[in-house]
Amino acid sequence: MSISYRPLDISKTEEVKHIQKVIDADLSEPYSVYVYRYFFNQWPNVCFLAFSENEKNPVGCVVCKYEVHRGARLRGYIGMLAVEHKFRRRGIAKKLVALAIEKMRDLGCDEVMLETEVENTTALSLYEGFGFIRLKRMFRYYLNQGDAFKLILPLTEKSCTRTTFLVQPETVIAE
Amino acid sequence: MEALKAQLEHLSIEHDLIDITAEFQSLAKEMKPESVIKAPSFDLFEGTHSLEIDNLKLDSSLLQLTQAEQDFDCNVSHGSSDEQKVEFVTVIVDRICRSIVQWLNEFQTLPTTLLSCRYVEHMMHQYTQDPCGDLSTCRLETGDLLFDQVLASCVVGACYFVKFVQTLFRAGVVFEEEDLNCNTMGLDMLSNVTIEIVMSHLDLSQQLLKKSYPENDQLLLLVELLTHLVELDNYLPSNEASSFGSPNLEPVHRLIGCAERAKFFEMHSPEVCEGVFSTGIQKRLSNQFPPREIVKPMGNEYDGFIEMGKDLLLVLSVEQATTITEISQFSRFFNRTKQRNVIARAFFPLYLMRDDQTVLGQYTFNDFSFLHLKEFSLCSTSLSTALEQEPGDSALRHKFEDFLQEISSVLFEWYQTTAQNRCRYRQGYNRQLLLWDSLQAQIETFELELEGQTIKDALDEDNTLMPMTTWVFYMKLRAMSDFVLMGFELDVYRPWEFFSMFWYGYYLNQHLENNLARVSKSLVAKIASIMSLNKKLKKSKAGEKKDKVREIYRSKMAEEMPFLTKTREFVAYSTLDCQITKTLSLVGACQFSILKSCGLIDNQNPASTAFSSSEWVHKLRFKTFSSIGVPELPTYAMFQQSLQDFVVTEPMFGIKLSQCIDFTLEELEKAKSSLRKIMDDIKIKEDDAAATRLVRSESLEYYKSRYRSAEALTINARTLKTKLADTATADLVKRYTVEVSRPHGGCPYFPVLILKGIVSH
What we know:
heterodimer; A: alpha+beta; Aminopeptidase; B: two-stranded antiparallel ribbon; 27 helices; Naa35_N (chain B); protein-N-terminal amino-acid acetyltransferase activity (chain B)
């Protein structure tokens, strides 16, 4: 069964709704329609979907964004990643993440950031396999009261310099 | 949608409305397709907190209540006999007490714990509508005193405690949602009510219970417990009564005593109070959070009050500190081996550094900063002498006072950081490092200028002390070292990063040891200088000159010598402490290099090169330190070279490997010996060199954990020696993998890399 991948097309309303269902079923955090639309409508080019040849709707997705971070560097962000249960263990998540990182790198991102649950060893292993490192741990970050790791993958050397030393003095914000 | 329609109908929004359909449609036409309508300030963080109507996971109005919940009435008494009524009220008050612990100690929300009680919601709703300080609008009206007096007073007591917690929370020491959730659903938690009114209410209940229900021990006990909980408000430093003298610890001891007794009563069946604890408040009031199940008691809640009480007693004991070093050591240890109760953590900085701009009501902030310097490196220096001799309005004193103010603001952050949760503790240092670094640069310039004016203390021909810079550097290095080591505790580093982190920890502690050696040298010289005055006295002839020397000698012996000898002891202890950290870090680095020598681990993560580079990943890891002036961050190449220097190679691989392991064993024995010395001193001496009198058990636990880590590293070294010697190098990779082991009871800063046999199938 072959899997194909393509960026999100928000004009396809049914697909968009289906992605929400896939993510809702998978993530511990409940997200409102606003959160989905926040990503989908502003950064559809860094949201990728996975399709199985026999399925009408997407079977997996990665939802991302990229923005200037504290006026200093362009930061990509992986917000959500989900694959339908029966399509797991086929490398779909890995491919989706690779596509997203590649795209964000091509768009000029200096780094890619995400948060994941400390207990989610599968996700940690996936992202660490791309070179992400755990920058810090956040106490009781999730609604389920689990701690989170903030993971960052540097794509340029800018990612390795404290924000304070990248921005103009008048716009310095302590990190 | 049916639920939404029902809600809209319920709202009856028919009057005073204006039809804006035309305007809405006109504006909508101007919108670009697919744009998101939001205020510019509304970011992703806000978005993830947004709710959605008609979404079961996010819309509290969709919560389904049971018939019992819907029908429950707070203004009728429950139970058909006196016994049943007493049982009912006891069950409610017991659950209220348990809910408080679940809210605080288990980091739950108010609406899922205390506010899930209908009586609490009902009475606080009344109070919010009409906030009268005399509680005349906040009552139950069942006509039965058990309810109207006893239960009502317990609700008021519990809510007054919430008000106390809100006050602590507003000080900004602990963090919303991660440490504490203070969402009161828009209910006013008795803002205009004084502690006296609440205490009098609870006192009346106690009198009533003693008189009319003498056989009901449990209910009386719970009312007493709530009374003592309310009394905690008196410890707030903003409360004038607590600003003078030692705090009265009796209420905390009594609170602990009540909890000790309360935990022996069995938990009642929840059926007794069916409908009283409910998710209803989330449905009825403005809920800014997704709907959540209410939290049911587990049975061990009273232990939570005991823990809170003990942690509070610990924090309050800081008031007994007689030196600044004791305060500093207190803050180092009180929240280190165990994360303290959130109330104690929130309370500590407020109790220490008060709204009246004093520390413990005893020192001004500037005096506090000055004493930090004096008790470390400033005493009996040229600068301290110059400051004593200069008039109050001199430029030197002004400049010095300015620096004291700057030091105060960094120290404020330092002490606040020590009370944070584990994750924020480490992050606090990350933020502080820039402040310490900048302060060091400024103060160093100032002291170099002073040296130009001959205000200097020579250590030898080439070096001077620079007492202020030396202290700032000492504080900065401690923050840097803690930041690095806490990363191990929080599992932030992967095994392939262990060499870099341990080696950097070693590097920082080498600088710290050097700095302490400079202070020690200076102290020895100063003490010798004072002692030499005595010899000079004995040799000189009687007369005016001798009298002058005698006067100086007496003055220095009385005012400076006690500081100098105490500081010398503390610096000696700090040196041992630093050497232990240095050794354990070195052994961690050595054990990594031994495993690398055998091809079992590498500091290069192949994954790093897929989209990034090993160098960038390394630089990102050390970003926190990249801008630090002194000690300069070694380059990436230096890190790589240092590992190469550690790695064992042919020829004579086996012998060299064995020697390397033996070296770590010798170093560990030295560390254990130093640890025993520190622990003996803490255990035996009342006035120990470590100045840990107030945190004796906490500091001992910390050093014991280091000792266990040293033992675990010793065992690991011996195991490595055996396993590596028994197997040909080429076969090691097939037989073993490397795993991270966290020895039971060991110091979390020093995880151990162990060999794990590969199970062949």
